[in-house]
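Checklist before submission:
- one chain only
- standard amino acids only
- sequence pasted in full

Submission:
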Amino acid sequence: MNQSIESHEPTPEFLAHMEWQIETALRRESRLSMPVGGGRPRFRAALIVVVAVAIGAVAGVASGRVQDARQRDALSESMQAQEALARARVELAQTAFQETRRRFEVGTVDRESLMAAERDLRAMETALARIHLDLEEFA
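Returned file contents:
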């Protein structure tokens, strides 16, 4: 009887194979039991797209503001140049009016020439005043 019990004892090859199967089964179970992150990569991708769009929008707005500031600076410089030119024209018109008035007083020019010089002076002063208003409105 003793031999029949021993005949039911596993052989070393059987034990090695059984151990290998148990290890393989445990490995499969541990791999398959890990949660699969199917939603996570999609969420990350969507989040990356949203962040990229937001960064692009911010960059676009910033670029627009820089461009607006440049345009404002260029317009301001242009208006200041116009003001300087208008001031010079007013000074020239004043000089011309004073010269025409002296000539009128001496009698070398008629009243129409004096009035024309005065009209030119008033027109230049009006243009300068208009530029001043534009500058105040712009600032």
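Reviewer check: The mean pLDDT is 84.
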